[in-house]
Amino acid sequence: MDTLQIQIKELEGKMNRLYQLVERIGERVETLSENKSPVPNAYSLSSFDQYQSQKNSEGKDAAYSLSHHKDILVDETSSNINSISGSERELSPEIQIRRLTAQLTAAYNRIAALEEQLLTYRIKS
């Protein structure tokens, strides 16, 4: 493997760990919000749950809804998940690294927003 492929694999691993971290933080916020009144927020868990349930009720695949999350960048040329994997093979390693870095940055921003929301709930308690 050359260094670019190694960097891509490392970034993919970091992305997976970040998404797991975001899920855990989301669960903590949800646990805290069960006893509190909901706070209107662009990152409100209830609005995200409504969005997810709406997508699932429309018969969308779970992978489809995950790939169209606001923090995940999708190629403009790809119309479904199968073409995403094919289009990534056509992209140069530098572009893949840029895309993964952008996704990583978006995930960090999402984590920061969830942490702020968690702190807000803790301060109110």
Number of domains: 1
Structural class: mainly alpha
> Helical percent range?
over 70%
Largest sheet report: none
Parts with pLDDT < 50 across at least 5 consecutive residues: 78-84
How many β-strand stretches?
Answer: 0
Oligomer, anyone? single chain
* Separation of the first and last Cα atoms: 51 Å
- What's the SSE pattern? HHHHH
Shape: elongated
Number of helices: 5
Radius of gyration: 17 Å
Task: Provide the β-strand percentage band.
Answer: under 5%
Mean pLDDT: 71
Biased composition (Polar residues): 34-56
Coiled coil: 1-28
Keywords: Coiled coil
Region (Disordered): 32-62
Detailed description of the structure:
Keywords: Coiled coil. Residues 32-62 are annotated as: Disordered. Residues 1-28 form a coiled coil. Residues 34-56 have a biased composition (Polar residues). By secondary structure, the protein is mainly α. It has one domain (3-124). It contains five helices and no strands. Helix 1 (3-33) packs parallel to helix 5. It is elongated. The termini are far apart. Residues 78-84 have low confidence and may be disordered.
